[in-house]
Amino acid sequence: MTTSASMIRVLSILISLWVFVGPQLAQAQEKAVSPKTPVILVVGDSLSAEYGIRRGAGWVQWLIENKKEALDDARLVNASISGDTTAGGRSRLPALLEKHQPDIMILELGANDALRGLSLDASRDNLKSMIDAAQERNAKVVLIGMQIPPNFGPDYARQFEQMFGTLAKEKDTYLVPFLFSSFALDRNMYQDDGIHPAEQAQPLMAQTVWPVLEKALTDYRQSR
Fold this sequence. Notes:
The protein is of the alpha/beta class. The protein has 8 helices and 5 strands, in the order H-E-H-H-E-H-E-H-H-E-H-E-H. Strands 2-1-3-4-5 form a 5-stranded parallel beta sheet, sandwiched between helices.
């Protein structure tokens, strides 16, 4: 076989290999550089767990259904449990972080601590521990604040309200100052117990959270 014929045969083999392997290699490279789908984990209590209202009518689901374009490929996971406290959230968070590996964590806990008159120092320590755990995994944290009526004791109510802002500043988190800010004094927005928001209040809660969550999501995407 002549040298020219040998070279032609080698080139033919190389071309055949590229036709077969090339597209697969390109696909593999594309997958390797594809951005990770952002996961937004909601860790909350009955205020986020659709307590007393129709399934799928809560504020988290409202965001999923009404902010599809802005959320784009981001996935919301609602891990809220009615009755949960900051201590309960702290104990179950490691497993949630391991399972869902969130890029953003929305932390909505503390109201049940206040209703039970629990130590604010303990509540603050639990929230701080949860924020630390999420941030150690490079997740951005959106902290949702709450308020309680002064009949719980004016000093206790004031310190409870201030706890969220102080933590947000200390730990450099995003902050929703008060989840009920747009309807707090409107009794028509509550269920018969006067504590839990009614179904018609859920869009208002979602719209209160959204500007802060949108900022966190934008910052996350810009940092990728």
